[in-house]
Amino acid sequence: MRKYLVVVDRNRAQKGIRLANLIIDRAIITIIFFAFGVIAALTYNLTSNDFLLKIVYKMSEINKFLDILITSLIYFMYTFLIEYFTKGRSIGKYITGTKVICIDGTEPTFNDYLIRNISRFVPFDGLSFLGENGWHDKWSETRVINIKNYQAEIQAKSEIDALGKKEIA
pLDDT confidence of 162, banded at 50, 70, 90? Predict the structure, then answer.
């Protein structure tokens, strides 16, 4: 279990910002699906190769359960990979100025991101934010913070700690 830093808790992103992150990231997934369809149509029109177009048609004919499963897996891959490779920031988080960090203020590990994103498969995880924290935050011991506020508070604390210390030139 990690040591919990109060500075992390004080700078958590507000629920409205978290909702904006979700909406933006879901819109990105919709754009990705739309772009795939456009690319499939363009490829067919330019080269008469219908391979991608057949995939689009097959995907449009699948049952609702399989559609939800495929969409969920793609969303999982998107959120997991983008948060991992950008060190805690999805496109939604870039836009809103937020970031994922651990409750002890450290950078999440591969396993933290994995647990965080697997937890999103739990039904009603999205509603878990009506409480204090979402389940995927609680179970992975991570928080989404406002970067500017967090860094400003860390900097102010560092400056206060440095008061009275002798500077060596």
Answer: confident
Neighbours of 138 (CB within 10 A): 16
E strands, the chain, in order? 98-102, 142-146
Secondary structure letter of residue 12 according to DSSP: B
Return the percent helix, strand and coil in the chain, to nearest 5. Answer: 70, 5, 25
Q: Is the pLDDT of residue 2 over 80?
A: no
| Domains of the chain, residue spans | 6-162
Q: For the residues of 80-94, what is the DSSP string, one character each?
A: HHHHHHTTS--HHHH
Query: Average pLDDT of 106-116?
Result: 95
Neighbouring residues of 106: CB distance < 8 A, sequence distance ≥ 6: 2
Q: How many CB atoms lie within 10 A of CB 63?
A: 8
Give me 8's structure tokens.
Answer: 């992390």
Task: Pull the structure tokens for residue 74.
Answer: 């793609």
- Per-residue pLDDT at 17: 93
Give exposure, 22-32, as e/b (b: 16+ Cβ within 10 Å). bebbeebeeee
Which tokens hold the place of 115?
Answer: 């647990």
Q: List, in sequence order, every residue forming a beta bridge with 142; answer none if it has no partner.
A: 102
